[in-house]
Amino acid sequence: MPEGPSILILRETLARFTGAVVREAGGRVALDLTRLRHRRLLAVRSWGKHLLLEFDGFSLRLHLLLLGSCRIGDATTPSTGAPAVSLQFDDGTRLDFHSVSAKWVEGNLDAHYDGSADILSPAWDAEAAHGKLRTTPHTLVCDALLDQAIFAGVGNIIKNEVLFRVRIHPLSRLGALPDPLLARMIDETRIYGFDFLAWKRQNVLKRHWQVHEQRTCPLCHRALARIAQLGKRRRRSFHCDHCQAFHVLPTLFDASLRKHASGNAPA
C-alpha cells in the first residue's frame, strides 16, 4: 500500500494537470464520474494516503489501496486493463488509475482534513499527536502508529522502521512508554517520513531498510521476528525481540503477549 511519501510524490507529478479541463471521465468505480465532465481541475492535493483532485465545490478522493497505480498517457496510449478511474483532458492527455477506491468529498477540503495529523504537512503538530496517544494507554504501539487520525501517511514500512529506530517492541502498550520515549517515537515518525521521501525520490528506499523485509538485526545480528499479522490491525511486523524493549502496563500484563512477541512466527 503506497504510504504518505509516495502519495506526495504522485501529487507533485500530477501537479502539471492543474488548470486542465476534463473532457471525459469514466471507470469501474461505483461513482458517476460523468460529474467531472467539462470541469476544471483546480488543484492536486494530498493528505496522508489520500490523493485529492479538487474541483469547484467538491473533490475526488482516491486511495491507492494495496496495489494502486497511476499512468499518464494520451489518446494514443493503450490502456492496461480496465482502469478504476480514467480522466481525459481537453489537451489530449489522460490519467488512468488502477486498483484504487474513489469517493466524493463535498465542499471545502480543509473542512474535512486535519493537516496537523499529516506527518509530512507543514501544519503537523507533534503535541496534538502526543495528546491523542495518551488518551488510549492500552493501545499497542504497532496499532497506534497506523492510526491515520494521528499519523496520516504512516504505513507498515514506516511503522516497522520507526519502532526499530526508537528500540520499542511493537507489542508495547502506549501507556507504558515514558513521556520522553513517546515524544521520541512521535518525532522519529515525522523524521522517517521525510527520509522515506528523499530515498524514494532517489529510488534507493529499499537499500535503507533496517528491519522491514529483512532477516537479520543490524545491531545484534540475531534473526528478526517476522510475524504475518500483528496487533488488531493484523499487519506484518519485522522487529528484533532482543534490541526492541517490551513495555507493558503491570495491570494489563498478558503472558501470552510476551510469548507471542518472542515467537518469531514466519511472515
Automatic annotation (TrEMBL):
Keyword tRNA processing listed: no
UniProt cross-references to Gene3D superfamilies, sorted A to Z: 1.10.8.50, MutM-like, N-terminal (3.20.190.10)
Organism listed in the record: Lysobacter hankyongensis
Molecular functions (GO terms): endonuclease activity
Family: Belongs to the FPG family.
Record-annotated Formamidopyrimidine-DNA glycosylase catalytic domain positions: 2-96
Listed name of the protein: Endonuclease
Top-level taxon of the source organism: Bacteria
One family name in Pfam for this protein: Fapy_DNA_glyco
InterPro entries on file: FPG_cat (IPR012319), FPG_N (IPR035937), H2TH_FPG (IPR015886), Ribosomal_uS13-like_H2TH (IPR010979)
Chemical reaction(s) catalysed: Hydrolysis of DNA containing ring-opened 7-methylguanine residues, releasing 2,6-diamino-4-hydroxy-5-(N-methyl)formamidopyrimidine
Keywords: DNA damage, DNA repair, DNA-binding, Endonuclease, Glycosidase, Hydrolase, Lyase, Multifunctional enzyme, Nuclease
Entry keyword DNA repair: yes
